[in-house]
Amino acid sequence: MNMILKTTNLCKSFNGQTAVNNISLNIERNSVYGLLGPNGAGKSTTLKMITGILRPTSGSIEFDGHAWKRSDLNHIGALIEMPPLYENLTAYENLKVRTTILGLTDKRIDEVLQIVRLTETGKKRAGQFSLGMKQRLGIAVALLNNPKLLILDEPTNGLDPIGIEELRELIRSFPAKGITVILSSHILSEVQQTADHIGIIAGGILGYEGKLNANENLEQLFMDVVKSNHREG
Hints:
Layout lengths: L2 E12 L2 E7 L2 E3 L3 E5 L6 H8 L7 E6 L2 E2 L8 E5 L10 H12 L3 H10 L15 H13 L5 E5 L7 H13 L6 E6 L2 H5 L4 E6 L2 E7 L6 H11 L5
Parallel strand pairs: 4-9, 4-10, 7-8, 8-9
Antiparallel strand pairs: 1-2, 1-3, 1-5, 5-6, 10-11
Keywords: ATP-binding, Hydrolase, Nucleotide-binding, Transport
Family: Belongs to the ABC transporter superfamily.
Pfam families: ABC_tran
């Protein structure tokens, strides 16, 4: 198996409370990995450790065949929580601010706008975008540095069915472009239609990891894992 990311016994505690407990993830290259779990299960905390926002209490992270180091963030794109956008700027200008910081060419702006299908927005400011367009612009920002791994935390939150469908197609297109996606969600149908592999976190524990089969009763599997790892809180 060709893994782009592995975590081994990853733990994170806050003030003596364990939020993430010995999580060992195996993320296959050029696939979509669905990270499932109820709200407060430890999904976001795990992703924040992978993206360097939080430091693990213990355990290790391997990226692209070596121990995770800060410079690996050059190859990881992430959209965790709401996309950080300048509401008074256009899509192009939002990306221009970041290419300037990253030292990238303007050509890359056109490339990512095309990938997320926002080439027609012209002079429209981001503040006037629909929620779905804002999410896609957030993903465009995450794609600027041409990442090998893209992390999307609850990307369909608040989207209407059309926005969800567009985002799903977009996410499915990434592995063919050489981009591995970790998609975190508590919406089972979303992951069922998008992911190749899944991990289910409940109570800070990875209760299940495996390939997603088309005929799998994901709801039953999810409920079983959540019930067996329920923690009093």
